[in-house]
Write a structure and sequence with these properties.
By secondary structure, this protein is mainly beta. Helices cover 5% and strands 55% of the residues. The strands form 2 sheets. The chain has a 6-stranded antiparallel beta sheet with strand order 1-2-3-10-5-8, with no helix packed on it. It is globular.
Length: 111
């Protein structure tokens, strides 16, 4: 059994104002984000299916041209290859689940 102690995982600032810690299995990636208010998450897409979980705070989230305000606790499913973006309206804690595993994120943990 592999146990991940989140307080021992190195946080990385991949987006200005946003730090993340990763947990990877053979098939999934979990991303534990902490964002300051006002952080812009630029529009992007990826081949991974994603579930965005707002654990604390409020984010303005846009997918396929539709914008909604997500408050904790809430979650949204983002199908693969769908453009999405966001802006944190408050300080936020967000947990993202990706399938399949994000090899691009996993490679960051090799250094």
């Amino acid at each position: 059994m592999k146990v991940f102690k989140l307080n021992e995982i190195k946080a990385r600032e991949l987006i200005p104002g946003g730090e993340v810690k990763f947990v990877h299995s053979d098939n999934l990636t979990l991303s534990f984000w902490t964002f300051r208010a006002g952080v812009i998450l630029p529009e992007h897409n990826h081949p991974h299916e994603q579930i965005l979980n707002v654990m604390e705070g409020t984010i303005e989230f846009t997918m396929e041209g539709k914008t909604k305000t997500l408050e904790s606790p809430s979650a949204v499913v983002i199908p693969s290859n769908i453009k999405h973006s966001g802006k944190t309206l408050t300080d936020c804690k967000i947990v993202d689940v990706f399938y399949p595993k994000r090899d691009d994120f996993a490679s960051l943990d090799k250094d």
